[in-house]
Amino acid sequence: MTAFARITLLSLVLGLSACAVHRPPPAPTGPTIPPSGPSTQPSTRPSGPVTPPPKPLPTKSPTFAPPPGAASHWDGKMQVYVLDDQPDTFYRQRTYYRWSNGWSRSISPNGPWEDTDVQGVPPGLSKQYAQ
């Protein structure tokens, strides 16, 4: 054998022998200390039915874009955005809708407002504010 092969073989044997000689540390033999805190004993009474928490309502529509530059949230029941700063004002598809003893619509949240009937508003709004 060449000197290089002998050194390589010797290095492998010594390296692997270190793995065979190493022992794991001994397990602790002292008394075990119970965890502090309240006891978690099972109850003898069955608990009532578990109700899941309500689903959070989405703040954005998956289909319609929110109104530009206005604070709003999506109302899934009415299928429109509700403007947070203007009461009874809604937005959907580049049109604002306002309820004030009747429906009106505009392309701006500040007007000018054009009167319309129930057919001129999204169906969810007409159901919510049925006359």
TrEMBL record:
Q: Which stretches does the entry tag as region Disordered?
A: 20-72, 102-131
Q: Which UniProt keywords apply?
A: Signal
Biased composition (Pro residues) is annotated at: 23-37, 49-69
N-terminal signal peptide: 1-20
Q: Which domain of life is it from?
A: Bacteria
Mark out the compositionally biased spans (Low complexity). 38-48
Signal as a keyword of this entry, yes or no, is: yes
Does Signal appear among the keywords? yes
- Protein name in the entry: Lipoprotein
